[in-house]
Amino acid sequence: MKLKMKKLLFLSIIFLSLVFLISCSNTPKPQTAKKAKYVFLFIGDGMGYSHIALTEAYLANLEDEIGVKKLVMSEFPVHGVCNTFCETRQITGSAAAGTAIATGNKTGVSIISKSSDKSVDYKSLAYSLKESGYKIGIISNVAINHATPASFYANADRRSMYYEIGVQLANSGFDFFGGGGFKYPEGRNADMENLYDFTEKNGYNIYRDINDLDKAKCEIPCMCVNPTILDEAEMPFAIDPNYKKSIPLADFLEEAIDLLENKDGFFIMLEGGKIDWAAHSNDAAGIIHEMLEFDKAIAKAFEFYLLHPEETLIIVTSDHETGGLALGNAVNEYQTDFKFLQNQKYSQAYIEKEIAKSMLINREFQELLTLIDTLCFNNSISFTEEEIGKLKLAYDYTISGISHYNPNELYEIYGGYHAIVSAVINIINTRAGIGFTTWSHTASPVPVIAIGTGSELFDNYFDNTEISSKIWDAMGM
Asked: Which of 29, 28, 31, 32 is nearest to 310 (CA)?
């Protein structure tokens, strides 16, 4: 009797399992009941998981706590992950990654929204949405004709075709561009029609005064250029003094929302491009300040979401990780002191200019140490013998141009940056307990964080080419 009961139980389990499998196989893909009408896509250029973790640990350490103080993005309910490899290389670049996100297609390194053989132009999600009646905004704190923003409105054989890309911006018909200006506005040889003039001729209102945004004078279509732009038409680093004369990314986004909100909806892509720049130079303090500015912009979108929770979708992701950033290093082993980074008051780029300027007047090593203490350690440092040795090697190489290191070793140590400044940044990072494995990008997968209508579509592990189609699905297109 017991044997018969066991047999019946076994057969029942098999039957129920088959029913379950059949029902699963016939279950349609989850579909969003509501449609996203307002979509924000945030791209933290170079932002990996560690960049988020470092910022959150730093904020906690400032309050003398061990742990994390979460950013706004980390509070969002959906956390996915995506691959970043491009068609021709495991480690991608911003052009190929931007193309994947904007168009849903893989391509080769340095190509903007075209096939690897450059024979086919890919159409970005932004153009498709514009044709469907949505307003379009593109914002970045680096040059607006840089790789990531360009991927949404241009097609180019090379990302370095800045002038040609700028012409396509003026012809795009998109409604709002904000942040950085045009790199090479008159071409590399300064012999072309000025891109600002050309864009204005194509019907765009161009604003460069911070008061234009404060008083809401802007009218679309428009291009709002930060009042302070640097050598490559980028905005200053958030950590630097000249950023105070800038319009924060959050304010650019607020202006875009005010101008683009309408009954048919909008799509806004905002890039935190200088996260990548800080990571390339292994500037941990710079990374943190860029991450905080990026998160403030995300907070602005979240405010809008709270007003329109059933019509808004916010996605936060990255094109690739930069720097191979680690919270921990071989020297300090298990010890960290992220709070130490608050002593650094300027970016690597700003420090480099100040040291180069100072060394034109005074080349004495002792004077250099005093300047470094002021710029980087809040006049509180007592250098160890090992740190003095690092700085002296970098100083001698800077003065003489001669080193016992070969070119590959020099690049490994200084990354092609000012040798003294790289040595200083290394000392800061080492003391804080931070490590970097590269001056370049890595192949690490990156986060995809979301909230709002259709956000459940991003709750898995997928390829970066799927981001645009997931947005399309969330919008019910």
From this structure: 32
